[in-house]
Structures are given as C-alpha cells and as structure tokens.
C-alpha cells in the first residue's frame, strides 16, 4: 500500500526530510490569497505503508505552525500538524486535483476525529481555515 500527499517546502523547519522522501512531482505555486503573495514549492510525495508511521512522527516535529500536510492511501486520511496528527477512515475521495486528493467523505465513525483535527489545526496549529482540506 502506498500513501500519497503533498508537502509545501516552506512548511518545514527542517527541509532535510525532503531528501529522504520519494518526490514524484513538484510545482512552483504562486498564491495571492489574503492580499499577500506567497511563492512555494509543492512536492507530491509517495510513502510506503511500512514507512508511514515514522514519516508522520518526523513531520509532527518539523512542521511549522500555520501549515499542515495530508496523505491518503485511498482508505484512510492522515492529517499532520505541528505537534499532532489525526487518522480518519474514509468512505470515498470526492475531489482530486493534479496534486492529489483534496476533498473526502469520512466514515461516520471518523467524523468526530475530523472535527478534532479541524479544531486543533485552526486553533493550536494556526492554519487558516480557508486552506484546510474538505472532509464531509
């Protein structure tokens, strides 16, 4: 099983992890939302199932506040913030972009976990709610 996600280079306090991950594609993105232009490199990443827990723990330690990363194996979604991560069981992926999956339908039993992730991410994680992925 392979997990796929995307990771913004500027979201990391320590970018050395990028050399240890399988980057399958990269894009430079210019984001002008919120009246401030930001330019970053968006890396599309694949992680083998047996490496996923290690990668999650490392990313929890090196993610900057205000950012998050998510990965999916098409059955589960892992959302990683600075200091914490959440695993959500999925019913289906509702929207995919060239960067990967962006909108998800959670298993009913995982909706509380999603609410906790959203609360943590937009609170302690300081992520702007406009940038959070969509889970229904």
Task: Please give a structural write-up.
This protein has 136 residues and is of the alpha+beta class. It has one domain. The protein is 17% helix and 45% strand. The protein contains two helices and eight strands. Strands 2-3-1-4-5-6-7-8 form an eight-stranded mixed beta sheet. A hairpin with a 2-residue loop joins strand 6 and strand 7. The longest helix is centred in the C-terminal third of the chain and has 12 residues. It is globular and about 35 Å long.
What is the straight-line distance between the termini?
Answer: 24 Å
Number of strands: 8
How much of the sequence lies in strands comes to 35-45%
Number of helices: 2
Residue share in helix: 10-25%
Instruction: State the order of secondary-structure elements, H for helix, E for strand.
Output: EEEHEEEEHE
Q: Could you tell me the radius of gyration in angstroms?
A: 14 Å
Strand order of the main beta sheet, please? Answer: 2-3-1-4-5-6-7-8
What overall form do the CA principal axes indicate? globular
Question: Runs with pLDDT <50, length 5+?
Answer: none
Which descriptors would you attach to this protein?
136 residues; alpha+beta; eight-stranded mixed sheet; 8 strands
Write the topology of this structure.
Elements: E1 2-8, E2 22-31, E3 38-48, H1 52-62, E4 69-72, E5 76-81, E6 84-97, E7 100-106, H2 111-122, E8 134-135
Quick recap:
The protein is of the alpha+beta class and 136 residues long. It has 2 helices and 8 strands. The chain has helices at 52-62, 111-122, and strands at 2-8, 22-31, 38-48, 69-72, 76-81, 84-97, 100-106, 134-135.
